[in-house]
Amino acid sequence: MFAPLNIVEFTAKMCRKPPERLGLEDCSTAHKKLRQSSKLWKIKAKHAARTYKLRGIHDQPATKAMFKLEDGTTKSVAEYFAETYPKFPLRRPDLPCVMVGRAAEPAAILIPMELCSFVDCQPAPVTPEVQQEQIKETAAPPNVRFDSIRKIHDSLLQEVAADPQHTLTNFATSIGPQLVEAGAVVMASPALQYRDPRGELTEVRVNPQKGEWNLRNTNGPGDLQFMEGGKVDGFAVVKFERVDNRAVGTFLDKFKSFAQQRGMRLGQQVGDVLDGTNKYHGGDVEAFLDSQIKMLNTRGSVGLVVCIIGDKQAMNAKELYPAIKRWSHTKSGIPTQCVQAGKACGKLMNSAQYHAGVLLKVNLKLGGSNVIAPGGKGGLALLRAEPTMVMGFDVNHPQPGSSKPSYAALVATLDQECTKYHTSIGAQKSRTEVEEGLIVNFVTKVRSCLRAFHAQNGTHPRRIIMYRDGVADNQFDAVRDHEVGLIFRACKEEGGEEYVPKLTFMIVQQRTPARFCTLNKQQVPAGTVVTEDVVTGDGKDWYMVAQHGLKGTARPSHFHVIHDDVEDTVRDPKLLQRLTFDLCHLYARATKIVSRPAPVYYAHRAAFIAQYYKDDYKEENMFEVGSTSSRGSTGSEGSIPELALADMTTANRVYYA
Hints:
about 20% strand, about 30% helix, paz domain, 4 domains, about 650 residues, alpha/beta, 24 strands, Rossmann fold, globular
């Protein structure tokens, strides 16, 4: 949130100068930064009891910015304010004014910038530096966090005891004397399977202390291979950052070597390294990729494009990275993999760990599968009892206060091992999620998933398991009454009146205030499931800390079963808990347990990246850091764009890996 910062102080902070040393050039820099944001910030002025929309900073000092009075004479802004508002003398009349006129003529109203401040509590972008500081300050380990909670608790009890009219007393609310002890179990991880260097299946055990595993072959030389290696006939390389071609060549040699070890086949590089270092804007990047890759395809088949980009994530996120993904996902259908020049062609060029992480993503984009969990009882065994489709659904929203569209993604498994996925995306009205009729084309999305499942398996799923993210407690009824019914409607429309599969519908709440620790105030182990004392106790809701807490206190996810007509899981809700934990191992972009099941995690990624698909997308952050907003087309603020992936091959791959 923006603090009520004076515009002069804001400019000084942006230019990293003391306010007294600011000049016109510094104010021009601030003006350019403000113009990079499509958001109009609200400001207030000392001399007026109203707010204004900040259109920019004028290019003339207040002493030289002239305007015409009603009698036809002209006067400088500095002179006018000195005569009209003597209570607010200008200390820096040499600084320019802010422009607060209408959009068609912003300079029609000028106010000296030193008299203006931002209206507080406006949503503001967070710089990477601030973000790092926030994480550092808030990532308290369990002993520190719970000691802090204890101090707050004791202080509040003292306040209540000393004040008979305390708010808690007036509302007949009491606080217990100690923290709640909740009953929990720790689930064991399933055995995972990869292939050894000979291509034979081999098991990998998860390290329960760290919630992760590695791909080293413990039974002999070499590393393990992916379950199914992706294959293409050839690949192209494009550099959008100035880097020596010899370094690029060394990186590619390592890249191909490690890919071969993982069981992948990338073919040969098609053509020379393409130079796109002079392409900065989205449209230019797309046109360059389109023309150059088409030209290369006349010399060989390009099935992958490796893009070497700069090291500054904020700059990449502005236009370059979105343009690359827009071209890949919605126009060409050719998978792309972006690597940062400083890592790929620099300090991590020879790092096996770095290449392994990159190849996890590349293999998914090429249609391969990385890992399976073949377990025989409970959990994933549910998916093998009869044709079952597991779905994940999420909606990505723009920043608060923005009218840019929200983006929804529905992801569904196509095989019993949960390695193949179909994805359907769409845009909808800004910041809407569960109200009736506001999930645009929800039935169409479900039908698309059913159709893809049938094409893959020759039958429709007999059972559907849905993980729904982003729903508050007071929205459960709306989801149950609306979305559950729409799923059954989609099934009938796709499979006929007789087609009524069994449905389990679960809500996943990530942003829960609950925190857990062991009795000795240590981090709870990965796989901790809280099933008593702080939940209903009927098995229809539970807290789960699936992941290992790397920093601070691990945040649990809260799962709620709001609809279930599957006899096995109704009789034994622990099967759903087991399934949920197993699916947290199958997020194939990593070799660690993640905090939520893979289908809903993939839906989150697909919904986030869908914002890039607008043709005129441009990062709208004055601090040049990542954002979840996209720029609307001129004159159509809040309009809902039509989204479509390039082809069914793209939709049936984890293209957003």
